[in-house]
Amino acid sequence: MSKLSQLYQQVILDHSRKPRNFGKLEPYTHSCEGYNPLCGDQITIYLNLDENDIVREIKFDGVGCTISQASASMMTQALDGKTKEEALKIFHEFQQMIVGELDINDQTNSLSSSNSLGKLTIFSGVKEYPSRVKCATLAWHTMNSALESKNKISTEKEDLIN
């Protein structure tokens, strides 16, 4: 295992063991519950958007595997202070990266902006493990659904697969 892979693994383990922005947010303007029945991951995303649609606070609560908890933790850090539009752009780029439609090393790809994904690119290797894709994207789909004012989602819906 390369030193870079070991570092990525350590970052994911750290976020899983000590998740950032974990807990219920009160009050909140948007929330959604997400569920992955394949591995039992359950997550609730809480957001506060201000009058300019800027994410002023974001937290998550729930239980899940290492990948889902680390992804949720890092997502909350990445989206804090972003506009709703920026959050949705990052969501779509993350989703494309996770399913292998976005090559983060291809500098000619207009979507491969490390500026948008930043540290989130450590999840790019998840595409090699298809059974873990839903774990890595659960928080993201839940956040997206919260912004769409949906109350609950499940990874079993076909529109969440890709």
Helix-strand pattern, N to C?
Answer: HEEEHHHHE
Q: What number is the mean pLDDT?
A: 89
Which architecture name does CATH use? Alpha-Beta Complex
Tell me the structural class. Answer: alpha+beta
In short, what is this structure?
The chain contains five helices and four strands; from the N terminus they run H-E-E-E-H-H-H-H-E. The protein has 162 residues and is of the alpha+beta class.
SSE topology:
Elements: H1 3-17, E1 30-36, E2 41-49, E3 55-63, H2 66-79, H3 84-98, H4 114-117, H5 130-147, E4 152-154
Parallel strand pairs: 1-4
Antiparallel strand pairs: 1-2, 2-3
Helix pairs in contact: 1-2, 2-5, 3-5
General description of the model:
- The chain is of the alpha+beta class and 162 residues long.
- It has a single domain, classed as Sufe protein. Chain: A (Alpha-Beta Complex).
- It has five helices and four strands, in the order αβββααααβ.
- Strands 3-2-1-4 form a four-stranded mixed beta sheet, covered by helices on one side.
- Helix 2 packs parallel to helix 5 and helix 3 runs antiparallel to helix 5.
- The longest helix is centred in the last third of the chain and has 18 residues.
- About 3% of the residues have low confidence.
